[in-house]
Design a protein that fits this description.
Elements lengths: L1 E4 L10 E2 L11 H13 L2 E2 L2 E12 L2 E8 L2 E2 L9 E4 L16 H6 L4 E4 L2 H4 L1 H12 L5 E4 L5 H15 L5 E5 L11 E4 L1 H6 L8 E6 L2 H9 L4 E4 L15 H9 L6 E4 L7 H6 L4 E5 L13
Parallel strand pairs: 8-9, 8-15, 9-10, 10-11, 11-12, 12-13, 13-14, 14-15
Antiparallel strand pairs: 1-2, 1-7, 3-6, 4-5
Length: 298
């Protein structure tokens, strides 16, 4: 990720930000993006994608929208005398960022694909073979969700963490946050634990399962790093559950400044649609492994 330090003489001097600027009269956001990148960095923007989940009021009268530049021509440089640098997403939270830019940082550190394990159904060998295959070509976050004793759950979580790490993937474990403290890359809170916890458990990553606005609000209030909202579509596993649909999902996701994955009837092909409806990405149960392993188009 390319970031810039605001120069002396500007508000917030010395703080880091993502390059950009104001939309001028008569400009679209895309046109403003292209102009600002040309003026500030000397590059010509090609493909770009809006990240609407983080369009939020940064200050009275200001609507802040984030865009991802997917392709450009030229070599970025500080055309206005500002310091610039490339940073890995995991390093960004350590930088002193402008407050308005901080909400996007959690999204940049998370992939668009959240996989939920089903090792008991597939068997360890087949599960790991499919997991390794998709992890090698698509960044993933994995939730280990198995009805196992801690004596098996903890070492297997560390095994999966080691399998995913070379590809930039991470593993969180579903269950009791106290019993699983320090396990793998973090915790995923079932709804019952989300309801009773007074604060975010310790750990690098904490996610939560949610089904409505109240649960999403609680996950955001205790400081969860992300949430899963379901069911978006009707599913065979819960045929009687009324699906939210994309319109309601977007309405709920817009109410929190927190990455929200769409779960329920999802496939890899739903990622583009999910992103346009304010989702971080899609959550898939591992039963779809082998049916839906085509890589994301670049």
């Amino acid at each position: 990720m390319l970031v810039a330090r605001r120069p002396e003489g500007k508000a917030g001097a010395g703080l880091w930000e993502f390059p950009g600027g104001k939309v001028g009269p008569g400009e679209s956001q895309g046109e403003a993006l292209a102009r600002e990148m040309r003026e500030e960095l000397g590059i010509t923007v090609g493909a770009s994608t809006i990240l609407p989940h983080y369009r939020a009021a940064a200050a009275p009268g200001i609507d802040l929208a984030f865009w991802r530049v997917d392709a450009y021509d030229g070599v970025p440089r500080g055309c206005e005398g500002q310091e610039i640098q490339w940073c890995l997403p995991e390093r960004l939270p350590a930088l002193p960022f402008l407050p308005a830019d901080r909400p996007i940082l959690a999204r940049l550190r998370l992939p668009s694909l959240y996989l939920i394990s089903d090792v008991d159904t597939l068997g360890e060998a087949l599960f790991e073979e499919r997991l390794a295959r998709i992890a090698a070509r698509d960044p993933i976050l994995l939730q280990l969700r198995e009805p196992w004793p801690l004596s098996r759950l903890r070492p297997y979580a560390e095994h999966l963490r080691a399998l995913l790490a070379p590809h930039g993937g991470r593993c969180v474990v579903n269950g009791d946050p106290e019993a699983l403290a320090g396990c793998a890359d973090g915790i995923h809170l079932p709804g019952a634990w989300l309801a009773r916890l007074p604060a975010r458990p310790a750990g690098p990553l904490v996610g939560a399962s949610c089904h409505n606005a109240e649960e999403l609000g609680r996950a955001a209030a205790i400081g969860c790093d992300f949430a899963v909202l379901s069911p978006v579509k009707r599913t065979t596993s819960h045929p009687d559950a009324l699906p939210l649909g994309w319109a309601r999902f977007q309405e709920l996701a817009a109410g929190v400044l927190m990455p929200v994955y769409a779960l329920g009837g999802m496939t890899l092909a739903d990622r583009a649609c999910a992103e346009t409806h304010l989702a971080q990405g899609v959550a898939l149960r591992s039963g779809v492994f082998g049916k839906d392993l085509e890589p994301r188009s670049s």
